[in-house]
């Protein structure tokens, strides 16, 4: 499953990233990496952006970025 499919308030573990090397570096700089636990807080109107929490940080991802992150619900 991908991050965009999580319901608001659900937690998940990151399994994989299906992105370019440049975007992967950006995710790492934001603190996102494999096996990290994240929480989907909410989606914007129309789901164009998705707010997540990771390591006490709030991050806003674009829909296509969230769709490229494979997760497992916990």
From TrEMBL:
Which SUPFAM superfamilies does the record cross-reference, listed alphabetically?
A: C-terminal domain of transcriptional repressors
Ferrous iron transporter FeoA-like domain residues: 1-73
SMART domains assigned: FeoA
- Coiled-coil region: none
Q: Which UniProt keywords apply?
A: Iron
> Pfam families in the record, alphabetically?
FeoA (PF04023)
Q: Which InterPro entries would you find in this protein's record?
A: Fe-transptr_FeoA-like, FeoA_core_dom, Transcriptional_repressor_C
Q: What protein is this chain from?
A: FeoA family protein
Source organism of this protein record: Campylobacter porcelli
């Amino acid at each position: 499953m991908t991050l965009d499919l999580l319901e608001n308030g659900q937690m998940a573990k990151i399994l994989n990233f299906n992105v370019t090397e440049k975007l992967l570096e950006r995710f790492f700089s934001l603190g996102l990496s494999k096996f990290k636990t994240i929480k989907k807080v909410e989606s914007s109107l129309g789901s164009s952006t998705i707010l997540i929490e990771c390591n006490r940080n709030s991050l806003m991802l674009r829909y296509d970025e969230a769709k490229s992150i494979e997760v497992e619900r916990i």
